[in-house]
């Protein structure tokens, strides 16, 4: 039979390439919202017959389709009406922060799945040690439930402390669920998963077997979220992973720096809903019933602090963080302060920052002097000139690597959490951030960023242009690959 069809192989391959190529190109053109992405994939498909189509079907299609617990009210039961009283109104935001930030509330209402609520509190932990102590204390005092989601959970001295605390909670009857990203779980070999399971903790991995199982379509889709919710009344989130590299007590003076936040109030229900949705997507289990009941706030509606939980990811929440940042840069009237370890914004965000600077807004961006990802740092450097020649300022902060993601605008609006300003966080990762409207909190962040600027070295156009040509060329070549770093 093979001998009979051998003369027709060229025709078969031509028809196969035509069918596969047409199907892939049509799918890319009809589903991609970013024109550069669509053009790039169509080009690969046309220039690499069959191979390009196969690559597109493997890596170019977003297959994450999942239902979400999109509203905290599904989790509240009889407390639903009580929680609704905490929702901020546009009039309330306008009276306290101006019409510009009332517009931000409308934007958030339309692009996120959660309302901005009043009656919250937020406490900042500026070191890993502070964050770990507070989180372990909450786990140790848990009476009903613990839900932990994280990107990295190392099997080191800090990781073992959390394993011991979670195991002790499970043994005293607390419902414990731990979700670790499949890639982040492999930062330690062997991983911490076995220790947790041996201790009676229910644990799972997000998008599991992406390496050994070759689940290539999902290898880039990671949960970068860091969430801990205890007893439905207190939550922790921010940028801190569970690893001793962020502990000065264990790692020493060279430990990395990060920022984490302890939150109480009605927004805890939204943070829980985000993590519970990820758990259901991974394990199929709905976290309902008495152990997972959300506790009604004790604060009064209308009291500070107004906070919104912002979930982003390659599902129904795609580019939500990007949309919020575009809106925030657009309404800024006085200042934009940003601290980010990985600063690789796309053209739209650069345009928004540059436009704000041209309007007279002070735009300051602080990045680490020494970065833990050299390729990303070189790509960042290759892009700096686009901001520097348009009235923005960039600063290199000395000292230990700072992994914090902090933003404050006009001393009253803040955006903190797990999102970096890079393509991975803005389009591929599952992230969680907090939109915080509170002058005290935003000004605290501004003071921290200004303190970093006071000891930082300013990046200048002349300094960039005076670097050797091979170094500048390498930066630009790496910048071209920044969507894949």
UniProtKB/TrEMBL annotation:
<dbReference type="GO" id="GO:0005886">
    <property type="term" value="C:plasma membrane"/>
</dbReference>
<keyword id="KW-1208">Phospholipid metabolism</keyword>
<keyword id="KW-0472">Membrane</keyword>
<comment type="function">
    <text>Could be a virulence factor.</text>
</comment>
<dbReference type="GO" id="GO:0005576">
    <property type="term" value="C:extracellular region"/>
</dbReference>
<dbReference type="GO" id="GO:0008808">
    <property type="term" value="F:cardiolipin synthase activity"/>
</dbReference>
<dbReference type="InterPro" id="IPR027379">
    <property type="entry name" value="CLS_N"/>
</dbReference>
<keyword id="KW-0594">Phospholipid biosynthesis</keyword>
<keyword id="KW-1003">Cell membrane</keyword>
<feature type="domain" description="PLD phosphodiesterase">
    <location>
        <begin position="219"/>
        <end position="246"/>
    </location>
</feature>
<dbReference type="InterPro" id="IPR022924">
    <property type="entry name" value="Cardiolipin_synthase"/>
</dbReference>
<protein>
    <recommendedName>
        <fullName>Cardiolipin synthase</fullName>
        <ecNumber>2.7.8.-</ecNumber>
    </recommendedName>
</protein>
<dbReference type="Pfam" id="PF13091">
    <property type="entry name" value="PLDc_2"/>
</dbReference>
<dbReference type="Pfam" id="PF13396">
    <property type="entry name" value="PLDc_N"/>
</dbReference>
<keyword id="KW-0812">Transmembrane</keyword>
<keyword id="KW-0677">Repeat</keyword>
<keyword id="KW-0964">Secreted</keyword>
<dbReference type="InterPro" id="IPR025202">
    <property type="entry name" value="PLD-like_dom"/>
</dbReference>
<keyword id="KW-0444">Lipid biosynthesis</keyword>
<dbReference type="GO" id="GO:0032049">
    <property type="term" value="P:cardiolipin biosynthetic process"/>
</dbReference>
<feature type="domain" description="PLD phosphodiesterase">
    <location>
        <begin position="398"/>
        <end position="425"/>
    </location>
</feature>
<keyword id="KW-0808">Transferase</keyword>
<keyword id="KW-1133">Transmembrane helix</keyword>
<keyword id="KW-0443">Lipid metabolism</keyword>
<feature type="transmembrane region" description="Helical">
    <location>
        <begin position="38"/>
        <end position="59"/>
    </location>
</feature>
<dbReference type="InterPro" id="IPR001736">
    <property type="entry name" value="PLipase_D/transphosphatidylase"/>
</dbReference>
